[in-house]
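Pinned message: reference record for mannose-1-phosphate guanylyltransferase
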Amino acid sequence: MKPSDYTPNAAINTRTVVPVILSGGSGSRLWPVSRGSFPKQFWPLLSDKTLLQETALRGEQPGFGRPVVVCNADHRFLIAEQLREVGITNARIVLEPMGRNSAPAIAAAALLIAEENPDAVMWVMAADAAIKDPSALNAALAVAVDAARQDYIVTFGMKPTKPETGYGYIERGSEFADVPGAYRVAKFLEKPDREQAAEFIRDERYLWNSGMFVARASTLLSEIEAFEPLVYSSVRNAVQDRTCDSDFERLSVEHFAQSPDISIDYAVAERTKKAAVVPGDFGWSDIGSWDALWELTPKDADGNATSGDVFLDGAKNCYVRSDGIVATVTGVEDLIVVVTKDAVMVSHRDRAQDVKKMVARLTAEGRPEALSHNRVYRPWGFYESLIQGDRFQVKRISVDPGQKLSLQKHFHRAEHWVVVAGTAVVTRDADQIMVRENESVYLPLGAVHRLENPGRIPLTLIEVQSGPYLGEDDIVRIEDVYARA
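Predicted structure (tokens):
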């Protein structure tokens, strides 16, 4: 029986279902767009909304609980702003002090949810997946929720469309008599080689492992405690000793650091006797490579998918994206070409999974492009480097209305600020100075200073730094409204 043919025992929108969004990882296979400082879930890769926004909106259904987002602390303001842009203002944003994989992250969410309702059903999703058919997803979710109510830990198994070697697989077992449309998990299988993947696609028992889970908070916690007691105890203590600032809940660094680094698949899914799978065919993709994005993007008559300022001549079956300068591609086939302001990536589509190897090489060489974009986002706005020399650097700084930078000083550089749009209030030692368009202010080395935008439009200025060392770590924060160290 297909999930779309099944009528659940109780409509899911009248029962407590809590969306849990995991926003971790760097998405290195989508470099140079996705990087550690600004990973793929924050980019609008398929529509005018980012992947995070699309994921969060799937959980905005009548009767569902307030969403829980577990994320890297460095991304907290970005996540809060992107959720606000789509009207989600009630999310619980839980900050991991360091990455410990999915099992500790899910344990943290389950413990927080269980404080209010241990029997609430968690719908755990990655922030960076794509869904083509939301109605089919909701039909499968109805089955999964009913199975979760009966104490199963449910995942969604996707019907394979090709012999994919980048996904794990699930072997489907027998169907449950009490929850039609849900099946026992016979086996979880690691990512196969091409020959194995070709065999799997010919056998309807084998499904792609979507990585989404549906289960009661109490069920997940009891299984985590049984199989990984150190994960359970460490995260429980981290949750109990959490602190709150602004709209964020910070897990205890001391306790969370003691948790093993382990995925929920290894910790629970592959070991529990409660594993279930609901087959689905709703156009799921984890967008794990540029080739996957090519498949999901509309194409021209020659099979080319493009984004940005792109010109093609005689190209076939290519994915070409430019987020900066014009990109032209002539007389080639099956290529991926991605252009950003500070990097160009060219790969054959068959080698799309290998982009992460190049990122590892760049990281080993200490190249900043491996992890950071030229434009760096901060809770107050962003900055980007325009020119850099031996003892000077020129940056563009944009400050959002009503925001301000930390009160700070530098030991190795002086700064000159020129306002080009908006109005700035500049603190310089004991003085407060109003700086308008086409006016400037000088900040000598060692001066205690702050930049603030009191207006209703973005403040844009050009910053000229000079000194023997211009690194971002030459900042001593004296006061900061964003609670940064």
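Pinned by admin. Summary line: The chain has eleven helices and 28 strands.
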